[in-house]
Amino acid sequence: MTNNTVISVRNLVKKFGNFTANDNLNFEVFKGEIFGFLGANGAGKTTTIRILSGLSVPTSGDALVAGFSALHQPEEIKKIIGYMCQKFSLYEDLTVRENIMLYGGIYGLNRKLIKERTNDLLEKLNFGAYGNKLIASLPLGLKQKLAFSVAVLHEPEIVFLDEPTGGVDPVTRRQFWEMIYETASRGITVFVTTHYMDEAEYCDRISIMNEGSIVALDTPANLKKQYDAESVEEVFVKIARPPIPHKFVLKQEE
Amino acid sequence: MNEIIRASGIGKKFGATQALKDISFEVINGEVFGFIGPDGGGKTTLFRIIATLLLPDEGELNVLGSDCRTGFRDLRKNIGYMPGRFSLYQDLTVEENLNFYATVFGTTVSENYELIADIYSHIEPFSKRLAGKLSGGMKQKLALSCALIHKPPLLILDEPTTGVDAVSRSEFWEMLRKLRQHNITILVSTPYMDEAMKCDRVALIQDGKILSVDKPQNIRNGFKSRLFRFMAADKYRLMLALRKYSETITAYPFGDSVHVTFRNDSYDDSLINIFRSEGIENVIIEETKAGIEDRFLELMEA
Amino acid sequence: MNRFLGFVRKEFLHIFRDYRTLIILFGLPAAQIMLFGYVVSTDIKNAGVAFLDLSKDEITVKISDKICSSGFFKRTGDLIDYNDIDRVMKMGNTKAVIVFENDFGRNLMSEGKAEISIIADGSEPNTATLVTNYLTAIITDFNREFSGSSASLSLSVQSEVRMFYNPGLKGHYMFVPGVITLIMILICALMTSVTITREKEFGTMEVLMVSPLKPVQIILGKVMPYFFLSFIDVIIILLLSWLVFDLPVKGSLVLLLSESMLYIMMSLSLGILISTVSGTMQQAIFISLVGMMLPTVLLSGFIFPIENMPVAYRWISSVLPPGYFLVILKNIMIKGTGFFYVWKETLILVLFTVAFIGLSVRNFKIRLQ
After folding, report:
1. Which domains does chain C have, with CATH numbers?
2. Is the CA virtual torsion C31, C32, C36, C37 positive or negative?
3. What is the ipTM of this complex?
C-alpha cells in the first residue's frame, strides 16, 4: 500500500442471503484522484458505496477508507467523508445560510469555524445575494454547486458524488467540474458514481462493475484504446451488454 | 398531411414564472424529434401541453390536425404519452399493466403485438413479475410498450432515458429508430446532449426558450470558431494556465480534455511559454469538431 | 364499456394484491365489533351496591340479602336519605344504589305492588347497563318466588331504573350502529381518496387523463369496487352482531340496507371530493383522518351523546353527515321504526351526497393544474 492510497479494498465480499452483491472486489483509490465508479442498475455499486461510507459492513474481506476499517471502524469513516447526491441533499425550506450552518454543525465544526466557512463559501460562489434565500427558490445549477460545497465544507478526505451533474445545463456542468477539479487539487479524493458515461469521461480513472465484480479499471483513454471505442459509453456497452438475451437464458432453465 | 405538430408562439406562465416563451416549431411525419435541454428548461411543460394535459396561455398549437384547445378529445385517442416517471402500476404485473393500457385505449395486446414485439420480447420472460420489481431499463421498456399498445401515430416520450443505465439507453434508442418503419412520429426529450445525435432533428431548449431547431449535424456545424482540445496530466492547472493566455476566449473542461477557443482562431508561442513557466508538460493539442454541448454553450452565452 | 370494465378490474387487482387494504377492509370491521362487544359483555363480580331503605321491613331485608348473596354484588353501605346517593357515587366503588320506597312491604301486601328504584352510575355506561340488568333479573326472580309462595296473590315488585350522569344511557347498544358509521366513512372516504391520489403521485393519472377514458369513468371505476366491498362490510357487521351478540335488526332489513347504500355513496363522494383537493396520498390521509374520522368518533354521538355537548359542538355535529346516519341506524336497528321516522335524516344525507358530487365534478380537472 503506497502512502497516497486513500481507499484500499481487499477481497471485499457482501452477500444478502444467497445473493452476492459484491464478489471479491480489489481496488485502490489514490489521494486527490477523481475516481469514476460505473455500472449498470443492480451491478452492485450501491452496495460498495454503502460499505465505503460506513453504512454497511462487509460479509468478508475489508476496505480501508483513509486508514479506517469498514469492518471495525465504520463510525470513524463517517466523520471523514462527505456525500452529495443529485437530489435531496439540501433542505428546500431552509435558507442557503441555514443549510450551510446545519451541515457544519452535523460534522462538528465549531461555531466560529462554521461562520468563517459560511462567509468564505458565499463569497467564493458569488452567493452573497442568495445567503438568506430559501433553497427552493434557487435555480437548479446553483443548488447543485451549493450542495457540493456543503459536502466538502468539513474538508473530508473523500467526497462521494452520486450523478452530480445529471440534468444540469452545460454551463453549470462545466463550472461544476471545475469545482471538482479544484477540490481534487486540494487533495480531496472525489469518488463519482454515475449512469452517465459522458460524466465518466471527466474522471482520472474509472472502474466498470458488472454483476458484482469489477470488470475494467483504468483511465478513460486507456480503456477506449483497449476496447477500440470512441467513447466510454461504447466501452461500457461492449463490456456490460449481456452476451445472451435474458429470454434465451430463461428458456434453458425451463 | 406532412406536419404532425405545428406550434407557433406558445407561452405558458405558472404564477410569476415564465415556463415557456414564444415556442415555435414543426414536427414532420415520421421523424424522431428531440427536445434537448437541462432540467427546469420547460421540456416537461411543453410536452404536457402537446399531450393536452395543460393549456398554453398564448400561441397556436395544432397536433395531428386537432387544435389543442378544442380538439383535445380526438387527440387523446391518437397519442401515446409516456410521462417522465414511468407511468406503471407498481403493484400489477408486467402483463396486467400491458393488458390494462390496451383495454383503456380500446384495443387488445394481440391486435398490435407485432408493433411492440421487438420491445416487449425483452421483458416477456418476466410477464408475471410485479412492475415495481423491475429494473430501470425493464420499466422503461414496459412503459414504452404500454404507450405504444394502441398504435398511436404520435408518441410523446418525456425523458425516457433518465435514470436508466447506458446499456439500456442505447437499446432504447435502437428501438425508437426501428419504430420509424411503422410510420410513427416520435417526440422525445432528454437532458443529455450526447443523445441529440440519435434524433433526426432537435430543438435545443433552455429557460423556456428554443435556442435552435435543426438536424443535429447542422447544429454542430453552427459552431463558428475553431475548437481545440488540450490534454495534460493535470487538467485543472492546464485550464488555469489557458485562462492566463490573453488570446483565450473560453477554456472549459470537457471529458478528459479542455475545450478552448481563441481570438483569431489560433494560438502562438506565448501560450507554450505560459505552460513552460507553470510547469505543465506533455500537453497534447489537437483541433476538434464541436459537439452539441459546445454549440449549446455558445448559444447560451450569445 | 369494455374500457370501463377493464378499469374496474384493475382496481380490484390493486385491492386484492395489497394485504393491508384487505385487512382494513375486512379485518377492521370484525375487530371493531369484537372489541366493542367484548367491552360490553364483560362479566361483573362483587360490584358495589348501596341501599337506601326507606321502609326497613322484612321484605326489603330479604331482597337486600338476596342481592348481596348472589355473588355479583357486595354491600358498600346503607344510606339514610337521598342526599347520600351523590356522595357514595362520587366515591366510585358504588356502581348502583337501590332505593326501597316508604312502606314498601305494606304497599306490596295491600296493593299488590311496590317500587324499587335502581340508580346506576351512568359515567360507565356499559357497567351501568350490566349492573341494572343483573339487579333487575334478581328482583324479577324474587318477585316470582314471592308470588309463588303466596299462591293466591299476584304481587309485583316494580323496579324503575334511573341513570345518574347519563340519563337514557346513550352509547350502549349504540356500538353496532356506531361501528358501521365509522367503518364506512373510513373505508369509503379514506380509501377512495387515497387510491385516486396514488395515481396522481405515481404519474399514472397523467396517462389516464390523456387516454380516451372520460373523467366520470375514471371516478366511477375507482369508486365501484369500494361501493361493492363496503356493502359486503355492512352485511358482515350485521351478521357478526347478530350471531355473536344476539343483536337483531328490529326494523326493516331492506330499509336498513338501502339507507346503508345511501350512506356509502355519500362517503364515497366525500372521498372523491377529498382527492380533488389533495395532491398527495399524505394529504388525503390527513384530511380523511383528522377531518373526518375524529369528528365522527367524537362529535357524531357515537361515544358522547350529542344532547350533552356544549352548543358550539352541537352545531358542528349538525354539519357532520355521520351523525344523521347514526340516528337512522339506531331507529331502524334498535327502535324498529320505519321510513316515516327517518325521512328527514335520509333527505339530509341525499343533500350531502349531491353537494359532494357537485363539488367534486367542479373540482375534477380534465387537465393538470
Report:
1. 2-39+171-363 (no CATH), 47-164 (3.40.1710.10)
2. negative
3. 0.79
